[in-house]
């Protein structure tokens, strides 16, 4: 932020309104993006191909900033919706992807589950226990993939899809010393 002709660091993620379009980010101090790859075969040694944006072939996708409030993002639903991308999936039909905040869509009793599965009646009524995530937004990775990409080539139409997420190895914060993300070497266990 410019104050008295001098650039002054601002300890906020934004200095003014953001959106409603994905490129309306002049007031945003930090942008997040992600890439996707289709790996066929072994997850560490298989053939990897970038999933790209349908409109321009870019392998990188913008993630909307998390909802801060109406002063920062007056039209969050419109802003977030503009971050749904039509994608090219190698060897497959087109799909869509969104990574960002969404209202929790399932029930999980975090406290009871992680307290050595301390659930009083796991087969009781659907709403008998507290939903610890009710009315909370969670960061979601939503991938819409055509069934034809997931069905086995055999005569049995079994749908199967697997995902992994890894942080890079090296340097502070898991990234490489150069500030990028290093790939996970085949012999390592990356988290």
Q: Can you walk me through this structure?
A:
- The protein is mostly beta strands and 191 residues long.
- The chain has two domains: 114 residues, no CATH class; 29 residues, no CATH class.
- The protein is 8% helix and 24% strand.
- The chain has three helices and eight strands.
- It has a six-stranded antiparallel beta sheet, with no helix packed on it.
- β3 and β4 form a beta hairpin.
- The two termini are 36 Å apart.
- The C terminus is likely disordered.
Topology, element by element:
Layout: E1 2-3, E2 6-7, E3 32-40, E4 47-53, E5 60-63, H1 76-81, E6 85-88, E7 95-103, H2 110-114, E8 137-144, H3 147-150
Antiparallel strand pairs: 1-2, 3-4, 3-5, 4-6, 6-7, 7-8
Task: Estimate the strand proportion.
Answer: 15-25%
Helix count from the secondary structure assignment: 3
> What structural category do the secondary elements indicate?
mainly beta
Shape summary: globular
Low-confidence stretches: 171-191
H-E string: EEEEEHEEHEH
Average pLDDT, to the nearest integer? 76
Assign a percent range to the helix content.
under 10%
Produce a short descriptive summary:
The protein has 191 residues and is mainly β.
Question: Which features does this protein show?
Answer:
191 residues; mainly beta; 2 domains; 6-stranded antiparallel beta sheet; two-stranded antiparallel ribbon; 3 helices; 8% helix; disordered C terminus
């Amino acid at each position: 932020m410019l104050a008295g002709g001098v650039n002054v660091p601002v300890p906020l993620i934004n200095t003014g309104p953001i959106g409603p379009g994905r490129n309306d980010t002049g007031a945003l101090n930090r942008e997040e993006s992600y890439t996707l790859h289709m790996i066929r075969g072994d997850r560490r040694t298989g053939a990897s191909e970038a999933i790209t944006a349908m409109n321009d072939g870019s392998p990188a996708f913008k993630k909307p900033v998390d909802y801060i409030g109406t002063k920062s993002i007056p039209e969050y639903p419109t802003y977030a919706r503009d971050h749904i991308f039509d994608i090219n999936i190698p060897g497959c039909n087109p799909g869509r992807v969104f990574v960002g905040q969404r209202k929790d869509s399932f029930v999980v009793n975090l406290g009871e589950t992680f307290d050595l599965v301390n659930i009083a009646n796991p087969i009781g009524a659907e709403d008998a226990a507290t939903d610890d995530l009710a009315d909370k937004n969670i960061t979601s990775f939503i991938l819409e993939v055509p069934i034809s990409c997931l069905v086995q080539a055999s005569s049995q139409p079994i749908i199967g899809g697997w995902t992994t997420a890894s942080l890079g190895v090296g340097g502070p914060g898991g990234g490489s010393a150069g500030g990028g993300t290093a790939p996970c070497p085949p012999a390592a266990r990356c988290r």
